């Protein structure tokens, strides 16, 4: 985020990138100033179509881009667009569908969206990876060295590992098997609601989960994302002082996905170079 008191000149279209966050209930887009990670203007949200098939979502992405691109201050019309999605995304392909329509598996998200946008370049990544990148660049991880582990607690559990600024994508640590069970079915925010767990009981499950992550990865910092991070007082008492790794709440909140997706599309030349050489 921009430092208080530090004057940054008004953005030009070249500083702006569209980021779109595809979630289970809403699809949200925004124009991001990639110098600061701040949104220019309001977010634009459309409910996720049901069923959320690739074709239906592509139609909504086209509507979101039309609205954002039509604004007075908008990115260059041929700039790449970033999209995040709650599944494994490998070279544009969706390879899993834990909490999304199964028809996504094997779909090339980048090509599908690009086609719906008249050929505009699209870069896609996992939703937690997007949030992690945003947080590492502009939020809690800013200027911090070492291994950051962002864990989002929501419908599922998402994870992003970022080592000295470099994302290791698609870690899917929500699906670690702990005590014979898929971690996200026990410790996601949804699991707490579905099983009507007290905060104490849920806190214990979180402790089991984070201790395991700590044992496997020895991160330098845990960053907690997802709606639950708005109420740390509910669960932090069961974690504070019980882990080696410091733990903080994400700061970018609802916009983290949009910002991370925009960054992936517009602010990471090294990634684009790597892809271009892989395609050549
Ligand atoms: C998915 C991940 C996703 C996470 C958060 C999990 O169920 O497997 O890809 O990042 O949910 O949405």
- According to DSSP, the number of beta strands is 15
- Biggest sheet record: 6 strands, mixed
Strand content: 15-25%
Order of helices and strands: EEEEHEEEHEHEEEEEHHHEHEHH
Terminal CA distance reads 36 Å
The stretches of 5 or more residues where confidence is low (pLDDT under 50) are none
Structure, explained:
By secondary structure, the chain is an alpha/beta fold. It is 33% helix and 23% strand. The chain has 9 helices and 15 strands. It has helices at 54-69, 109-116, 127-138, 183-187, 189-194, 199-217, 232-235, 256-266, 269-279; strands at residues 16-22, 26-33, 38-39, 44-47, 81-85, 89-90, 93-94, 122-126, 147-153, 157-163, 166-168, 177-178, 181-182, 221-225, 247-249. Strands 1, 2, 3, 4, 5 and 8 form a 6-stranded mixed sheet that branches. It has a 5-stranded mixed sheet with strand order 11-10-9-14-15. Helix 1 (54-69) crosses helix 2 (109-116) and helix 3 crosses helix 8 (256-266). The longest helix has 19 residues, at 199-217. It is globular. The mean pLDDT is 94. The chain binds beta-D-glucopyranose. Beta-D-glucopyranose binds at residues 86-88, 96, 98-99, 126-128, 152, 156, 158, 172, 174, 184. Beta-D-glucopyranose is lined by residues 86-88, 96, 98-99, 126-128, 152, 156, 158, 172, 174, 184.
